[in-house]
């Protein structure tokens, strides 16, 4: 009588290429990665070939972390205490998600698509994009309706050529066509993008009211000037409250804490390439520190592709916000001649239990 064969171990299953893809469809990419780190044999079968792992992760489930961050208002999401409340400048604040939709949303594990950055599968509810109509925002990621710029960088010819080689052949369009509401990106990559944008602005850009502190412009360190501008010669001493107020004001393009009423005549010719940001000019330097000329192309910090010329930013036909304009859950608030909003609140697209719909049952 033959002895019964022993059951195959997990390692035996992972070593079978016919079974491994099926296994991948039942776990998230993070779980598959951690499984590969349990021992050397698993590592060799799962992560030993980058091409194989790339194919396997396309089969994985969404892990649901993006939706958890939305519901807990964790980065890159945040809760604005002034959202929806009457303030002196209500147009400066957006809105927040409708709670009945936010907390009833479910992660669609099997309906995930790869993140445009890392390739990890993420579902519709977990990918990052603004779920409520923001203030000033448009479908353009680089300039909003108030002419405030973001998510752009300028590079010297050498660095620009290197980046061009990196992105060559990766996109159908040579120029940036990023749409923040269509773009499929996970929250982790979005945080990395935001951190890069913040660091670039701190270290390689300078507002026009600080140009008088610059040197020759070549290999200038605007980040150092940003850090030192509060301690320049002749500046008055500030207490801790003044510093806190200044830190908050430094994010506003309209603030001027440089201690100078007018720009030095040596720098009225602009220290580097400049772009209009709302009502002021901002100078840009390359990441290597070189000053730039006007003919240096502008690049998107998201996809790293070259951007349309500055004068053509409003000619791309992306003025509408169909994600909100066509959604009955976000009725368009049109005030009357006296600036008053409609009362009562417009009927939303969903009907809750107990709502009077005006319909009679037969």
TrEMBL record:
Segments of skewed composition (Basic and acidic residues): 221-241
Superkingdom of origin organism: Eukaryota
Region (Disordered): 218-268
Biased composition range(s): Acidic residues: 242-260
Record's protein name: Uncharacterized protein
């Amino acid at each position: 009588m033959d002895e019964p064969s022993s059951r195959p171990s997990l390692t035996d299953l992972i070593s079978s290429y016919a079974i491994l893809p099926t296994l991948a469809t039942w776990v998230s990419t993070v779980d598959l990665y951690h499984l590969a780190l349990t021992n050397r044999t698993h590592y060799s079968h799962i992560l030993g070939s980058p091409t194989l792992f790339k194919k396997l992760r396309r089969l994985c489930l969404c892990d649901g972390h993006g939706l958890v961050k939305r519901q807990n208002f964790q980065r890159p999401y945040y809760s604005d205490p002034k959202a929806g409340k009457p303030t002196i400048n209500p147009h400066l604040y957006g809105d927040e998600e409708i709670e009945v939709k936010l907390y009833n949303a479910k992660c669609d594990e099997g309906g995930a698509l790869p993140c445009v950055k890392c390739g990890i599968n993420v579902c519709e509810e977990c990918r990052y994009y603004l779920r409520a109509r923001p203030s000033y925002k448009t479908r353009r990621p680089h300039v909003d309706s108030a002419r405030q710029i973001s998510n752009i960088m300028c590079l010297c010819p050498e660095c620009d050529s290197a980046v061009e080689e990196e992105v060559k052949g990766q996109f159908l369009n040579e120029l940036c066509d990023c749409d923040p509401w269509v773009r499929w990106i996970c929250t982790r990559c979005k945080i990395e993008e935001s951190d890069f944008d913040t660091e670039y602005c701190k270290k390689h850009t300078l507002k026009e009211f600080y140009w008088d502190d610059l040197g020759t412009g070549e290999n200038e360190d605007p980040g150092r000037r940003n850090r030192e501008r509060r301690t320049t010669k002749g500046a008055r001493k500030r207490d801790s409250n003044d510093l806190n107020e200044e830190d908050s004001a430094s994010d506003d393009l309209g603030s001027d804490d440089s201690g100078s009423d007018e720009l030095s005549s040596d720098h009225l010719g602009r220290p580097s390439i400049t772009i209009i940001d709302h009502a002021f000019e901002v100078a840009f330097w390359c990441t290597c520190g070189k000053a730039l000329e006007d003919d240096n192309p502008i690049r998107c910090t998201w996809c790293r592709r070259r951007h349309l010329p500055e004068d053509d930013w409003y000619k791309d036909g992306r003025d509408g916000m169909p994600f909100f304009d066509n959604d009955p859950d976000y009725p368009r608030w049109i005030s009357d001649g006296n600036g008053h909003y409609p009362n009562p609140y417009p009927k939303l697209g969903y009907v809750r239990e107990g709502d009077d719909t005006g319909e009679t049952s037969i």
